[in-house]
């Protein structure tokens, strides 16, 4: 029985050896041994030799099976044709070299596949949140809210939070923000830098001023930019039909929402005074303390801030030949339209600041002190129309800027540079037209009555000095109104 089994196994092994044994020294030796025992009568020594050959064949076959398995594993992992094509030449030397090469390349492939599989698993678990939530809702409806499987829900929420923490936040450079603000009517780079500085420091919830100063390139987080755009659109208090009213005239439907927006109030205060405030992460107590500090504000500083808010065309009309770089002397003021507006705003600001300290205080006492944010808050409450007018001077296209930005992005994606240039010219023209209208409205509704009151109180006041500086020797009340 043993001999019959041995002959059957030997025949199968020899057949496999002839097909796959290769031409190595070990394969040739096995074929020679098997040929010697292929015939002859079995003896005790012959049986032992045949048993030894049987074990050698088994060992050789197990090595071949292991190598075939390695080749199959390499094919599945690498996705390529296996490197081993059989046992050729000097069997051990070639096999060892190929196996050494596989040992060096396969682990890297395995690690890559494992990482990709882990990422795919996380993405699948994250994207299945809606389905899981739906199944949780069905289970909660079936068995009650008390038995809702919160463990699985919290596990998925924890995975989502971990992924979001590893995602790089969306941020905007100051240069890109300045380009976006041009679609809202801000044409001067220095004004855009003031707005960016306020958004970075004054309204940033989780970042300190020291860290911002250490950064080489400051970036505005998406959350802050989104709150700024949302405040311009009226926030939650935006009424139905406001878009149609804004497209036809101006910001009357949004005036109340703009007055209630702390972000916009602090933004206008920062642009007028050049003070960005402190970070929101400093706390409410530090914020209240900073709001009571007087920011330096003089006639030249406020005049320079108003010049930064106006486009070039309107600035030449209201500021005459003196322009933005002209030095202003408080004792010899050439009274033009912009300077009259500056003096009017200073008078209101100082009265509001004095009204906060003591109701009967002389506003000239605080002329050299400055304006605090608390005093500016009183100004917004006392003169809401002037506040809205100043905000419209700063952002005249606040109600159309979003559509202009979307249109410019669409033209840029289609590489229509000529159309994009035409859009820029359209934005510039509308900015100049609207700013001219807002300046005239401020003068007609607020500055002229202020001049009339000053003339009625003192007989010879700011209005008379204005007319004298302009060369008027004889003038009437109508001349004051015209100026």
Automatic annotation (TrEMBL):
Residues 99-111 have a biased composition (Basic and acidic residues). Residues 26-35 have a biased composition (Low complexity). Residues 21-48, 88-117 are annotated as: Disordered. It comes from the Eukaryota. This is Uncharacterized protein. It comes from Polarella glacialis.
